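Notebook, student rotation project (T.W.).
Task set for the rotation: take a protein with a known small-molecule partner, predict the structure of the complex, and write up what can be learned from the model alone. Partner molecule chosen: pyridoxal-5'-phosphate. Sequence and SMILES entered below by T.W., checked by me.
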Amino acid sequence: MPVESAAPERARELRDNYDDILRQVDEAAARRTEGPQPRLVAVSKYKPASDILALYEHGVRHFGENYPQELEGKAKDLPSDIAWHFIGALQSNKAKLLAAIPNLFAVETLTSVKAANHLHNALSSAPSPRSAPLNVFLQVNTSGEEQKSGLPALSPSTPSGELVDLALHVVQKCPTLRLKGLMTIGSFEASTSGERNPDFERLKESREALVAALRERAGVDAVRALEADGGLELSMGMSNDFAEAIEQGSTNVRVGSSIFGARPPKA
Ligand SMILES: *Cc1c(COP(=O)(O)O)cnc(C)c1O
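Predicted structure of the complex:
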Protein backbone atom coordinates (compact mmCIF):
# COMPACT_ATOMS: atom_id res chain seq x y z
CA MET A 1 0.00 0.00 0.00
CA PRO A 2 1.40 3.43 -0.86
CA VAL A 3 1.83 5.61 2.19
CA GLU A 4 -0.11 8.86 2.30
CA SER A 5 1.69 12.04 3.21
CA ALA A 6 1.10 13.55 6.62
CA ALA A 7 -0.73 16.88 6.72
CA PRO A 8 1.80 19.74 6.55
CA GLU A 9 1.08 20.87 10.13
CA ARG A 10 1.57 17.34 11.42
CA ALA A 11 4.82 16.96 9.47
CA ARG A 12 6.10 20.22 10.91
CA GLU A 13 5.14 19.20 14.45
CA LEU A 14 7.00 15.89 14.09
CA ARG A 15 10.11 17.57 12.71
CA ASP A 16 10.12 20.15 15.49
CA ASN A 17 9.67 17.50 18.18
CA TYR A 18 12.40 15.35 16.70
CA ASP A 19 14.83 18.25 16.37
CA ASP A 20 14.15 19.25 19.95
CA ILE A 21 14.88 15.73 21.24
CA LEU A 22 17.97 15.44 19.05
CA ARG A 23 19.28 18.71 20.48
CA GLN A 24 18.77 17.36 24.01
CA VAL A 25 20.55 14.15 23.02
CA ASP A 26 23.52 16.16 21.77
CA GLU A 27 23.57 18.32 24.89
CA ALA A 28 23.50 15.28 27.17
CA ALA A 29 26.27 13.65 25.14
CA ALA A 30 28.36 16.80 25.48
CA ARG A 31 28.06 16.63 29.28
CA ARG A 32 29.89 13.32 29.47
CA THR A 33 33.55 12.76 28.91
CA GLU A 34 33.64 9.80 26.55
CA GLY A 35 31.62 7.47 24.39
CA PRO A 36 30.25 7.46 20.85
CA GLN A 37 27.46 9.73 19.66
CA PRO A 38 24.25 8.08 20.94
CA ARG A 39 21.77 6.77 18.40
CA LEU A 40 18.27 8.24 18.66
CA VAL A 41 15.62 5.64 17.79
CA ALA A 42 12.17 7.11 17.07
CA VAL A 43 9.64 4.70 18.59
CA SER A 44 6.68 4.72 16.23
CA LYS A 45 4.41 1.99 17.63
CA TYR A 46 0.68 2.65 17.06
CA LYS A 47 1.58 5.67 14.90
CA PRO A 48 0.64 5.79 11.22
CA ALA A 49 3.16 5.17 8.44
CA SER A 50 2.55 8.75 7.27
CA ASP A 51 4.18 9.99 10.52
CA ILE A 52 7.21 7.82 9.88
CA LEU A 53 7.46 8.98 6.29
CA ALA A 54 7.39 12.62 7.40
CA LEU A 55 10.40 12.01 9.65
CA TYR A 56 12.09 9.89 7.01
CA GLU A 57 11.87 12.83 4.63
CA HIS A 58 13.50 14.88 7.39
CA GLY A 59 16.46 12.46 7.33
CA VAL A 60 15.54 10.09 10.19
CA ARG A 61 16.39 6.42 9.59
CA HIS A 62 16.21 4.58 12.93
CA PHE A 63 12.68 3.64 14.00
CA GLY A 64 11.49 1.27 16.73
CA GLU A 65 8.40 -0.95 16.76
CA ASN A 66 6.94 -3.30 19.39
CA TYR A 67 4.57 -5.55 17.46
CA PRO A 68 5.87 -7.94 14.78
CA GLN A 69 2.84 -7.66 12.47
CA GLU A 70 2.74 -3.89 12.71
CA LEU A 71 6.47 -3.78 11.94
CA GLU A 72 6.08 -6.19 9.02
CA GLY A 73 3.37 -4.04 7.44
CA LYS A 74 5.24 -0.77 7.91
CA ALA A 75 8.51 -2.25 6.65
CA LYS A 76 6.75 -3.36 3.44
CA ASP A 77 5.16 0.03 2.81
CA LEU A 78 8.04 2.33 3.79
CA PRO A 79 11.48 2.94 2.22
CA SER A 80 13.90 0.04 2.36
CA ASP A 81 16.78 2.03 3.85
CA ILE A 82 14.95 2.52 7.15
CA ALA A 83 16.82 0.76 9.96
CA TRP A 84 14.12 -0.93 12.05
CA HIS A 85 14.56 -1.85 15.69
CA PHE A 86 12.29 -4.50 17.15
CA ILE A 87 11.80 -3.54 20.81
CA GLY A 88 8.72 -5.57 21.81
CA ALA A 89 8.27 -8.87 23.60
CA LEU A 90 9.91 -11.49 21.40
CA GLN A 91 7.91 -14.68 21.01
CA SER A 92 9.70 -17.57 19.35
CA ASN A 93 6.86 -18.07 16.87
CA LYS A 94 7.43 -14.54 15.54
CA ALA A 95 11.12 -15.10 14.79
CA LYS A 96 10.41 -16.12 11.21
CA LEU A 97 8.37 -13.03 10.48
CA LEU A 98 11.11 -10.78 11.88
CA ALA A 99 13.90 -12.65 10.09
CA ALA A 100 12.15 -12.00 6.77
CA ILE A 101 12.43 -8.21 7.16
CA PRO A 102 15.63 -7.42 5.22
CA ASN A 103 16.14 -3.98 6.75
CA LEU A 104 15.66 -5.05 10.35
CA PHE A 105 18.62 -3.38 12.08
CA ALA A 106 18.31 -4.97 15.50
CA VAL A 107 16.23 -7.10 17.82
CA GLU A 108 16.68 -5.39 21.17
CA THR A 109 14.73 -7.80 23.31
CA LEU A 110 16.39 -11.20 23.17
CA THR A 111 15.99 -13.08 26.46
CA SER A 112 16.25 -16.79 25.71
CA VAL A 113 18.36 -19.41 23.99
CA LYS A 114 15.18 -20.74 22.47
CA ALA A 115 14.32 -17.43 20.79
CA ALA A 116 17.95 -17.06 19.65
CA ASN A 117 17.75 -20.49 18.00
CA HIS A 118 14.47 -19.64 16.31
CA LEU A 119 15.94 -16.41 14.95
CA HIS A 120 19.14 -18.12 13.86
CA ASN A 121 17.28 -20.92 12.10
CA ALA A 122 14.93 -18.52 10.37
CA LEU A 123 17.82 -16.35 9.22
CA SER A 124 19.80 -19.39 8.03
CA SER A 125 16.95 -20.53 5.81
CA ALA A 126 15.72 -17.10 4.68
CA PRO A 127 15.13 -16.94 0.90
CA SER A 128 17.34 -13.86 0.54
CA PRO A 129 20.23 -13.99 3.00
CA ARG A 130 21.17 -10.77 4.77
CA SER A 131 24.45 -9.12 3.86
CA ALA A 132 25.44 -8.89 7.55
CA PRO A 133 24.44 -10.68 10.75
CA LEU A 134 21.40 -9.35 12.59
CA ASN A 135 22.24 -7.20 15.63
CA VAL A 136 20.80 -8.42 18.90
CA PHE A 137 20.64 -6.77 22.29
CA LEU A 138 20.00 -8.94 25.34
CA GLN A 139 17.28 -7.50 27.55
CA VAL A 140 18.11 -7.18 31.23
CA ASN A 141 15.56 -6.66 34.00
CA THR A 142 17.60 -4.14 35.97
CA SER A 143 14.75 -3.01 38.22
CA GLY A 144 13.79 -6.50 39.34
CA GLU A 145 10.11 -5.66 38.79
CA GLU A 146 8.13 -8.81 38.16
CA GLN A 147 6.07 -7.46 35.27
CA LYS A 148 9.19 -6.52 33.29
CA SER A 149 10.82 -9.01 31.00
CA GLY A 150 14.54 -9.48 30.85
CA LEU A 151 17.25 -11.60 32.41
CA PRO A 152 18.69 -10.87 35.85
CA ALA A 153 21.48 -8.29 35.94
CA LEU A 154 25.09 -9.28 36.60
CA SER A 155 27.43 -7.73 39.13
CA PRO A 156 30.91 -8.40 40.51
CA SER A 157 29.30 -10.65 43.15
CA THR A 158 27.04 -12.45 40.61
CA PRO A 159 29.28 -12.76 37.55
CA SER A 160 27.45 -15.74 36.04
CA GLY A 161 23.90 -16.63 35.13
CA GLU A 162 21.44 -16.75 32.25
CA LEU A 163 22.74 -13.55 30.71
CA VAL A 164 26.24 -14.99 30.34
CA ASP A 165 24.86 -18.29 29.03
CA LEU A 166 22.74 -16.53 26.41
CA ALA A 167 25.60 -14.25 25.32
CA LEU A 168 27.89 -17.28 24.96
CA HIS A 169 25.25 -19.08 22.95
CA VAL A 170 24.84 -16.15 20.55
CA VAL A 171 28.59 -15.66 20.12
CA GLN A 172 29.45 -19.34 19.71
CA LYS A 173 26.37 -20.94 18.14
CA CYS A 174 24.53 -18.29 16.14
CA PRO A 175 26.70 -16.92 13.31
CA THR A 176 23.69 -15.14 11.76
CA LEU A 177 23.39 -13.02 14.92
CA ARG A 178 25.77 -10.39 16.20
CA LEU A 179 25.85 -9.62 19.90
CA LYS A 180 25.44 -5.86 19.83
CA GLY A 181 24.75 -4.95 23.43
CA LEU A 182 22.43 -4.94 26.42
CA MET A 183 19.05 -3.26 26.71
CA THR A 184 16.90 -2.29 29.67
CA ILE A 185 13.75 -0.40 30.59
CA GLY A 186 14.41 1.47 33.83
CA SER A 187 11.75 1.54 36.50
CA PHE A 188 9.46 4.56 36.46
CA GLU A 189 10.41 5.56 40.02
CA ALA A 190 14.11 5.38 39.23
CA SER A 191 13.62 7.53 36.14
CA THR A 192 11.77 10.26 38.01
CA SER A 193 13.85 10.45 41.18
CA GLY A 194 16.21 13.00 39.62
CA GLU A 195 19.25 11.12 40.94
CA ARG A 196 21.61 8.90 39.03
CA ASN A 197 19.42 6.07 37.88
CA PRO A 198 20.40 2.82 39.68
CA ASP A 199 18.86 0.71 36.89
CA PHE A 200 21.16 2.32 34.33
CA GLU A 201 24.14 1.76 36.65
CA ARG A 202 23.14 -1.90 36.89
CA LEU A 203 23.07 -2.24 33.10
CA LYS A 204 26.57 -0.76 32.88
CA GLU A 205 27.78 -3.07 35.64
CA SER A 206 26.19 -6.01 33.81
CA ARG A 207 28.14 -5.16 30.68
CA GLU A 208 31.43 -5.10 32.59
CA ALA A 209 30.70 -8.41 34.27
CA LEU A 210 29.58 -9.92 30.97
CA VAL A 211 32.72 -8.90 29.12
CA ALA A 212 34.84 -10.37 31.93
CA ALA A 213 32.85 -13.62 31.81
CA LEU A 214 33.11 -13.83 28.02
CA ARG A 215 36.86 -13.27 28.20
CA GLU A 216 37.09 -16.22 30.54
CA ARG A 217 34.67 -18.55 28.80
CA ALA A 218 34.73 -17.58 25.11
CA GLY A 219 38.35 -16.47 25.04
CA VAL A 220 40.34 -13.31 24.52
CA ASP A 221 39.91 -13.42 20.75
CA ALA A 222 36.11 -13.49 20.99
CA VAL A 223 36.18 -10.39 23.19
CA ARG A 224 38.67 -8.71 20.86
CA ALA A 225 36.29 -9.36 17.97
CA LEU A 226 33.44 -7.74 19.91
CA GLU A 227 35.61 -4.75 20.70
CA ALA A 228 36.75 -4.43 17.09
CA ASP A 229 33.04 -4.26 16.24
CA GLY A 230 32.63 -1.24 18.50
CA GLY A 231 32.18 -3.03 21.83
CA LEU A 232 28.92 -3.84 23.55
CA GLU A 233 26.38 -1.03 23.48
CA LEU A 234 23.89 0.02 26.14
CA SER A 235 20.32 0.61 24.95
CA MET A 236 18.68 2.57 27.75
CA GLY A 237 16.61 5.73 28.07
CA MET A 238 13.08 6.63 26.89
CA SER A 239 11.06 9.86 26.74
CA ASN A 240 11.28 10.66 30.42
CA ASP A 241 14.85 9.59 31.14
CA PHE A 242 16.94 9.61 27.95
CA ALA A 243 19.14 12.56 28.96
CA GLU A 244 20.15 10.90 32.26
CA ALA A 245 20.65 7.62 30.40
CA ILE A 246 23.08 9.27 27.99
CA GLU A 247 24.99 10.89 30.83
CA GLN A 248 25.24 7.43 32.38
CA GLY A 249 26.63 5.89 29.20
CA SER A 250 23.71 5.02 26.93
CA THR A 251 24.59 4.57 23.26
CA ASN A 252 21.02 3.98 22.03
CA VAL A 253 17.95 5.82 23.31
CA ARG A 254 14.39 4.84 22.37
CA VAL A 255 12.07 7.83 22.36
CA GLY A 256 8.39 7.58 21.43
CA SER A 257 5.82 9.87 22.98
CA SER A 258 8.08 12.95 23.12
CA ILE A 259 8.39 12.80 19.34
CA PHE A 260 5.02 11.42 18.20
CA GLY A 261 2.76 12.53 21.05
CA ALA A 262 0.84 10.35 23.50
CA ARG A 263 -0.25 6.90 22.37
CA PRO A 264 -3.81 5.65 22.68
CA PRO A 265 -4.21 3.55 25.85
CA LYS A 266 -3.75 -0.19 25.33
CA ALA A 267 -6.96 -1.96 24.39
C1 LIG B 1 7.22 2.23 23.94
C2 LIG B 1 8.64 1.98 24.24
C3 LIG B 1 9.59 3.02 24.24
C4 LIG B 1 9.22 4.48 24.04
O1 LIG B 1 8.61 4.95 25.19
P1 LIG B 1 8.27 6.51 25.40
O2 LIG B 1 8.14 6.64 26.86
O3 LIG B 1 7.02 6.79 24.66
O4 LIG B 1 9.43 7.28 24.88
C5 LIG B 1 10.92 2.69 24.47
N1 LIG B 1 11.30 1.42 24.70
C6 LIG B 1 10.42 0.40 24.72
C7 LIG B 1 10.91 -0.97 24.97
C8 LIG B 1 9.08 0.66 24.51
O5 LIG B 1 8.21 -0.36 24.57
